[in-house]
Amino acid sequence: MKESNPILKLHFEDPQNAGILKQYNCLGKDSSLTSGATVIYYGFVKDGIIKDISFRAFGCSYLIAASSFITTLAKNRKFLNASKISKKEIEEKPGSLPAGKKDSLNVAIGAFYNMLSSYMPSLVKNKLYPEKDNRIAVAMSGGIDSSMAAKILKDKGFDLIGITMKIVPDDILPPKKHITSWMTTDIESARKICHILGIPHIVIDLSDSFEEKIIGPFCNAYLEGKTPNPCIECNKLIKFGLLLQNCCSLGAKYMATGHYCQIEKDIASQTFKVRKGRDPL
Predict the structure, then answer these.
(1) What distance in Å separates the CA atoms of residue 79 and residue 77, rounded to the nearest whole number?
(2) Which domains are delineated in the chain?
(3) pTM attached to this predicted model
(4) How does pLDDT run across 193-242, given as a tens digit for each residue?
């Protein structure tokens, strides 16, 4: 690190907020797929603000420095605003990490995003954010459809929060879908779009619920000789159940997706129906 920016060097020689908090209510961990380098963040969120944060890093000097600097950016920052912290912001003052050390930055920022994600169950329980009429949570897959939906809504002046639903455990996804042990290519793509649009992005980890409510019953039904349709149950219990509940906990009045469909209200039954899109193709 001899040729590094003085700020980066300082964060290695005198790391800020190192260690384990005595009191924390969220925790995030990530590690490198190649070197095994690992970062763990401990955060204490109160009244929607990251009141305190600390870290432990096991790896090279760049990993330690990047992790330390991230804590200085996040401390006393509003929860949703903290999710906007990007690699670009991290490298603005300390300077860019060498090409061979970008993996350290991915691990450090991945662990931080994971920490934010781990706080969502508490957020759902405590309902810290009041509902806002113009706030929309956009389900971001990282693809073109959901990205364009977010862009259109942003241009219309809505207050947006990008959300990405995680339903597959890390150890099941193939290696090519991973950037780090926690960060997937889909999460990274969705986050990049949100950073470009200047909106928060939160990962909602529903993998345990998906296993319990969808995968388990699906497999059991097959063993009984039935032909279940898991998508129906997923839409009801996960997408428009738990995911929508998480969106509401962020103060969103609506949830938007990139699906090509029309929503119509049936006057007689006073229910909403999802119909095929207008595009004939």
Answers:
(1) 6
(2) 6-122 (3.90.1010.10), 130-276 (3.40.50.620)
(3) 0.88
(4) 999 999 999 999 999 999 999 999 999 999 999 989 999 999 899 998 99
